[in-house]
What we know:
This protein is about 25% helix and about 20% strand.
Amino acid sequence: MGELEKLEAVIVGGGQAGLATAYELARLGVGLAVFEAEERIGDQWRHRWDSLRLFTPARYDGLPGSQFPSDPASFPGKDDMADYLETYTRDARLPVRTGVRALRLARRDSSYVLETTAGTVEADHVVIATGYQRPKVPAFAADIQIAVRQLHAGQYRNPAQLAGDVLVVGAGTSGVEIAIEAARAGHRTVLAGRGTGAVPPVFYAFNGKLFWFYANRIASVRTPMGRRMKPLVLNHGAPLIRVKMRDAIAAGVERTTRVVAVENGMPVCEGGHRVQADTIVWCTGFARDYSWIQFPVAGPDGFPRHSGGVADGERGLYFVGLPFQTRLASGLIGGVGEDARFIAEVIARRLRQAPAPQHANVPTVELAGQH
């Protein structure tokens, strides 16, 4: 058995949050590695539905040290985003190891031991940039007639997967967009669920500057409004961004209350109304899975206990990419950089205050776009 690899920091997850954190850590001279389960950087975006576009224009989609390479006013597609992450990783020379899945994380004395599909590493600091999310579908979905086709939003790619009348369950941004697409493809479409609210249209004025200020400085855990808003976002979903419910109505989508049960094989909504559907698309989110971490990190709501991404009661565990981690913008592409910079600075400060152990060489990083 070879010698155990030791690093100052490891990041689990090579999406936008993990890459932004890697950039900031490397800029501060921290020795690190990023483990990404997909075989190719950006594949988590490539696997999403074909017509998906980012919620914010390209001017607000850049990661630290970089700008998104599209017309600033355009809304990049999911493949554009995937390619951008891949290019960003290459240009910044970030130490990402693809095709490596984290299996088990445990404490060891003053550090952590991470078992992966490519071996085991020891690190002083571990950043979790993934929730290993599982599609969340209500248990009663198993009682729906077998003739009804069911798929989760994570499985949806395009209207070719839909047949007959369509029921979309979940009225967040993904549900509204998929419902619109289904209706425009000629399917009678019903959208079920409570509305999550919407960002007021006036906020998109001045090239979106007003919205960006709101998402970063008003809808923040530092303000009373933001602290009231956070549990609503975590439990019921973020407000509609870019799309509006009236867009769905204009496309011919019908609205109904949330699905609460199944009777005689068909979904039943609040109030007892049954919906006849040939296809059901569950836009009901994802359940976060931290079972691979061998000590408790999540609270009763399933989300990690943390302050600004620094795990409560842990000397070297952190989270990035959480919804409303510090503000509404935390869940947007261009908003992850601020959280990543904060976490990187905490790690660098803690490393300076600790005795200097022997670690692998620190990777060289270049500012994205400067090469």
